[in-house]
Amino acid sequence: MAHPAQHPHIVVHPPALDGSRRVTEGEVTLGLASHLDDVVEILRLADLDRVEVEEDDLIEWQGGGPEDWPGLSEHEV
Known about the structure:
By secondary structure, this protein is α+β, with helices and mostly antiparallel strands. Helix content is 13%, strand content 22%. It contains 1 helix and 4 strands; from the N terminus they run E-E-E-H-E.
């Protein structure tokens, strides 16, 4: 069995009605993201900044990938 510190299981959940996406590691909520940069910052604050957000297999993107952020069309991308 893999050690959790070596292989964190990060999940970026499907967008909520407001477009935000919950970010979890296992059963722990790390934060709420409304943009890809938020995911990067949430992982940095959790000492998981070694994870490549857009390419790493350790991140499970549910309900859309790193480019799917409802409501971004009215914001700067």
